[in-house]
Backbone:
């Protein structure tokens, strides 16, 4: 069921984007072979209870901070027990009447709401308390940590793929990563949720975790085969990244002079889609380009123009590169970039930029580069 009772502001605040049957079915498909009728299944942020409508003889428990949602859930799923608690405060099994020795499976789609994010910062305000041992800047990460605190045996939830593949986020998982191991995934697009912004898709993962003594390391995630909807596999370590060649962030101690070439901070591919590349004026987001690395910044400038052939699931990765191939095709990248960045032409005096035919030749070769770089992941749009 689609969420219908909240105003935009509250929907964003609570992260109330409800999950379609297609995705809740995937979650049940993933957990089915791990659980039996003796288990308890909990969704601690259940909305209208979409995840609990599955026909099973397990004990089903739902909870949500939103009392209207809980009322609907009670009507929708008479076979489950419901609570109206803040799931991140005073986290314990007792709160839901789950005994210590029950085998517990947590399902759901917790809210993802980066409290510090710039996007829609005006309306994002978290009003409820969070236990200090699970408090992080992102609500979704706090939810994952609350599952560890509840000592779940199996966790199968939807969350942004960036929680795993961005190292800084992965490090925030703390006890969750220490005690749980990713075993099965399906990556879906944020686009498959109605009511979310359609301007920038980001990857969401339906992730099955199993409690395991040694948990998982970041290295394990980098080598994990993430399953995609089109039955392809995405593995982070299949690619080389621009961060292995150039600085992505400004150096506080570098000084700018009249000759400095400036480039906007690089975060991930989705940020590059939104942001600028070369900039004229210095500011705190500007990187001073080392001249001997200029070719790589040019690469990123071109990458931005061709980013539509990069699939959404790479959106949270650094800019990817095949350095050997780039070296072969470099002159076409330089030609393409310098058609736009006139102020850099003085560094490449060997090229005759007035020859407009070069523009289409460069395009041809760059397209070829991206087809080889991305292979079966090349997106046609
Ligand atoms: C993405 S929705 C998911 C709802 C439902 N599981 C589904 O997928 O259809 C997130 C839900 O988390 C609830 N929520 C947000 N903060 C919460 C909190 N601190 N405690 C409990 N529920 C919370 C919201 O009210 C919302 O219903």
Residues:
């Amino acid at each position: 069921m689609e969420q219908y009772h909240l105003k935009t502001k509250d929907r964003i605040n609570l992260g109330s984007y409800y999950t379609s049957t297609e995705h809740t079915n995937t979650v049940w498909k993933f957990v089915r072979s791990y659980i039996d009728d003796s288990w308890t299944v909990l969704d601690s942020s259940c909305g209208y209870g979409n995840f609990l409508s599955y026909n099973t003889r397990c004990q089903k428990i739902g909870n949500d901070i939103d009392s209207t949602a809980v009322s609907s859930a009670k009507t929708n799923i008479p076979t489950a027990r419901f609570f109206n608690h803040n799931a991140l405060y005073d986290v314990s099994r007792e709160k839901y009447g789950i005994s210590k020795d029950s085998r517990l499976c947590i399902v759901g789609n917790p809210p993802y709401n980066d409290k510090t994010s710039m996007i829609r910062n005006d309306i994002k305000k978290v009003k409820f308390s969070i236990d200090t041992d699970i408090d992080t800047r992102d609500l979704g990460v706090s939810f994952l940590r609350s599952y560890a605190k509840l000592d779940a045996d199996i966790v199968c939830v939807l969350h942004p793929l960036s929680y795993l593949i961005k190292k800084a986020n992965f490090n925030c998982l703390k006890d969750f990563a220490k005690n749980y191991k990713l075993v099965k995934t399906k990556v879906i697009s944020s686009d498959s949720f109605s009511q979310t912004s359609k301007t920038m898709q980001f990857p969401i993962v339906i992730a099955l975790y199993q409690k395991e003594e040694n948990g998982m390391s970041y290295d394990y995630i980098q080598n994990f085969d993430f399953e995609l909807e089109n039955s392809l596999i995405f593995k982070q370590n299949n690619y080389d990244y621009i961060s292995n060649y150039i600085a992505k962030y400004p150096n506080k101690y570098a000084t700018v002079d009249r000759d400095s070439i400036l480039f906007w901070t690089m975060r991930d591919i989705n940020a590059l889609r939104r942001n600028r590349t070369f900039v004229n004026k210095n500011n705190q987001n500007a990187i001073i380009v080392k001249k001997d690395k200029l070719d790589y910044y040019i690469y990123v400038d071109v990458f931005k123009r061709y980013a539509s052939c990069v699939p959404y699931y790479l959106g949270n990765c650094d800019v990817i590169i095949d350095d050997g191939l780039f070296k072969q095709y470099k002159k076409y990248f330089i030609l393409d970039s310098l058609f736009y960045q006139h102020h850099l032409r003085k560094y490449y005096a060997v090229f005759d930029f007035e020859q407009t035919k070069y523009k289409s030749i460069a395009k041809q070769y760059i397209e070829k580069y991206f087809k080889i770089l991305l292979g079966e992941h090349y997106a046609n749009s």
The chain is about 30% helix and 15% strand. Residues 240-377 form one domain.
